[in-house]
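Most newcomers find our protein records easier to grasp once they have seen one. To make this concrete, we reproduce a full record directly below:

===
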Amino acid sequence: MAEFEIRIPRMSVAISEAELLDLLVEEGAQVSEGDPLFLVATDKVESEIAAGASGTVHWSGEIETVYDIGAVIGVIRTAD
């Protein structure tokens, strides 16, 4: 079983952090690559972030928390 890290993505070169607004998938849920996974906000925009892999979601991040770009907020455990 492999793990794909769920990270706060870089929205632009000028942005160094983003707020985790909402988790669109519950802990332990199955997702397919490309499914909507979570929402983040920077000072300029809210963005829906898609799953980068298929598998079971396990969160470590908390909503309404500001994270640095690249921070790990969970994993997707794949069947590989």
